[in-house]
Amino acid sequence: MKSVLPITFLLCSLLSAAQAVEFKQTDSFLVNSNEVQEAELWISTFQLETYGELKDNLFFAANKAELNGIAHKDVWGISLKGVQVGGDCKEDVRLLTQDTIKFKGSIAGNTIAIANAIQLNKQASIQGDAIFVGENIVSKGAVGGDLSCYGMSVNVGGKISGNLHISSSNITLMPGIEIMGDLTYTSTKDLRLGDQVILHGKLTKSLTPVKKTDFFQAQLKRFSTQLYFLLAASLVAIPLLGFFPLFCGMSVTAIQRYRSRCFFVGLICFFALPLISVMLIFSIIGTPLGLVTMGIFLIALYAGKIMVALTLGTHLLHVKQFNSFWQLLSTTTVGLIVLYLLFSLPIIGITLWLFVSFTGLGGVLGYLFQTQRQWLYPSQRGSSSKETSLQDESTISKTTTTTDENKQE
Q1: Rounded to two decimals, what is the model's pTM?
Q2: What stretch of H or E contains 159?
Q3: How do 100-103 and 117-120 pair as beta strands?
Q4: pLDDT digit string (tens) for 319-376?
Q5: Are 87 and 74 in contact (CB under 8 A)?
């Protein structure tokens, strides 16, 4: 697989002067049981497996990940098809996946896990605080601090040394569970403790979630918020399209022709750039560069959604060439209206927002940081031929050329 992520590599390399950082982008990454990784790892891979020792922090984006070795520092990861933690993690763990997270080992620090399903096995343990967010949560192991669970179905057992907070419509406390602190829950049903449930603190029921009768009002408020964001994006689109038509044309062309690659690059940068910015800011020497990096990230993230809206509007209205700026603006507005209507939906809104943000961010950064753009346009040769070809293929560039000719006449 010969795929390059120069944007992430460039930004990661900026930290190499201050500390050892090793960035890898490969099909699979394996750390054998007899291996020791001394440097901080930034990994983008399809399959991640670790059985050895990781001396420094681990940041990864993978299709599937298995962490069975020893991690002496923090672990941050995002995965599509699940994560399994079977080894020992000496500090904090932060994981995000759309599938299942399985904890089978031990974690000495705090833990945040966001997934469709989360499982803390009976032999597993978390010494610090733990926050689980998912549809189905099953916690059978020991938690040394506070445990907070937010999900549709929550099953908790084992020993909780701190407080236990549960927000769910279906709560089950397994026989033999011992809670050293207080138990606070949020549910539409009253929770009754069985004889085999040991609670040393007090039981408290917090405010009940939003009732079905209030759903319409909540949705109306959500729609009103998205309408405000729509108006703001429409105002930002006016100077963006007016002053930077070539930039918009390049970005839209990238999204149209290389959607999957833009999505993957945007996915990596969405999580990598904020982390890099914070690390640079706290390094004192790199504070100005960190602020600039964060600014570029925020601008590219916002502009990317406008570029996706323009792409969507072009497809919906079957526009092949723009004859005026107002036609360009109206097409973008149509795309923004459709996007923000979908963003207001309670279930798929956040998923669609992430997809649009990743794709738009990848398309914009691909233009901003690549003067040759070989990673995005591998079939074109020569910088001059690239510019000419892109201008011919970009409808926005055609509009700019036509407008200039009319002014000269």
Answers
A1: 0.55
A2: strand 159-160
A3: parallel
A4: 888 888 888 888 899 999 999 888 887 767 888 888 999 999 988 887 776 544 444 4
A5: no
